[in-house]
């Protein structure tokens, strides 16, 4: 059996591609660097992260990109002996405008080398590339209408002005011919995320609708001509949880069809799992997959009937799901940052971190403040479980209050809790908690320890975070036993829906190590290890 979500934690907008018996899923990474996550499987059950292809300045520079900007909705395909990756780089998402630029990169294998990007257009986001059986290539994206009322995280239908189609010439590396608006969407509105599939002479267009919140849905239409007109699916939506508030997988939408070599049909989609009793999803939008069938009327539907996605789905072959490791620990003894981790925005990580300056530790150089959109020394991994413990040990000798380093439960500049070693003029080295519990747009901090906890003048400090559902407890160890640091905090705010709300936050919770030095002197902080332990609940 397949158990959903197949990619737990922040992995939205799944585009699936099959090459032989190998399946690949590309998902959005937004402001986290390197850009685009690609997972691999041979059975649709067990998945492994294998590549983040946008990993150098020539391909991607997101310094200055806002929270939830950056890489949106990649589309991965294979044709002509190459992998083709299409993606949007969003530079602005507030107000009436979406400054969204679309690019294509290619590679002979998933491992690369991946090319420099080819610029395509900027008319909207969620691009895809369709390789027709006559050899022609077609580029699709939703078109954004700024002359509308879709402003500031509260989308309205007029902003999502349809799906554009135009031919792409790979030799000239540009769009050619007439651009056509081929699909205005259903009455549900907010049409985006287009993908094309050709079957039995029909062009099937799947799109996402309803916004990426609790009204989200996969909508299908078809046409005999790629340019339309497209007729709606008789049920309109193939996958949605919008009318099923008790479903485990909520916010279902935005995915793509894949067929196995034997002809079985599956459809990926994003989803979220809100905390029990709360409309908050700290794990962000995750990736799931559903088994489908083609009906006698030529339309696709879920195998079990209805549009509501299932947690357990029949796999294409009998295979055992490999258990996830209970504890994942990194000692930072190697020359490269483990694949679990990402940082924010910049293509120049050497300014933020080093694994060689002091071998055996991850050294972070204090840069701009936590939450900066430019150069922030924060290295973190996705939260993949509702309950977990994360632990590290820090060597850090701050000289003033502008220098801090520690462990953070982080979503964006408006949603984080930060257990930090810093310096107090009267007490010397101390432990404090900086928290921003969803104060959008101001980002006002709460200082949750009225009196910072005194620490030894030197020596390593152990830091830990235990999350159980909506509760976060920080811990510390200063040469002795573990002790609680501060009160129980609201972990649920570190979620899509916390603060600004579901239509303005598109990533997920991370747990990791951070350092800042707003004096500008780049004070180093050395992290000896980092462990993440899954817990029941």
Q: What is the global morphology?
A: globular
CATH architecture call of the largest domain: 5 Propeller
Strand content: over 45%
Structural class: mainly beta
CATH topology of the largest domain: Tachylectin-2, Chain A
Mind telling me the CATH class of the largest domain?
Answer: Mainly Beta
C-alpha Rg (nearest Å): 23 Å
Instruction: Specify the helix fraction band.
Output: under 10%
Number of continuous helical runs: 0
By CATH's scheme, which homologous superfamily of the largest domain applies?
A: Glycosyl hydrolase domain, family 43
Number of strands: 40
Report the end-to-end length measured between terminal Cα atoms: 22 Å
The number of distinct structural domains comes to 2
Mean pLDDT figure: 96
The unreliable regions are none
**Major sheet size, sense and barrel closure:** 8 strands, antiparallel
InterPro entries: ConA-like_dom_sf, GH43_C2, Glyco_hydro_43, Glyco_hydro_beta-prop_sf, Glycosyl_Hydrlase_43
Domain Beta-xylosidase C-terminal Concanavalin A-like: 330-533
Active site: 13 (proton acceptor), 192 (proton donor)
GO biological process, one term: carbohydrate metabolic process
Report on this model:
Keywords: Glycosidase, Hydrolase. Belongs to the glycosyl hydrolase 43 family. Residues 330-533 form the Beta-xylosidase C-terminal Concanavalin A-like domain. The record marks 126 as: Important for catalytic activity, responsible for pKa modulation of the active site Glu and correct orientation of both the proton donor and substrate. This is Glycoside hydrolase family 43 protein. The chain has 537 residues and is an all-beta fold. It folds into two domains: 2-313, 5 Propeller (Tachylectin-2, Chain A); 327-534, Sandwich (Jelly Rolls), CATH 2.60.120.200. 0% of the residues lie in helices and 47% in strands. The protein is built from no helices and 40 strands. It has strands at residues 2-3, 15-19, 22-27, 32-33, 37-41, 48-51, 70-79, 82-92, 99-107, 118-121, 128-131, 137-144, 160-169, 174-183, 192-199, 202-209, 217-223, 231-240, 250-253, 257-259, 265-272, 286-294, 300-302, 312-313, 327-330, 343-344, 353-354, 362-365, 377-382, 387-395, 403-412, 415-424, 428-437, 446-447, 453-454, 461-468, 471-477, 483-490, 510-517, 524-534. The strands form nine sheets. Strands 25, 27, 28, 30, 36, 37, 38 and 40 form an eight-stranded antiparallel sheet that branches. A hairpin with a 5-residue loop joins strand 37 and strand 38 (483-490).
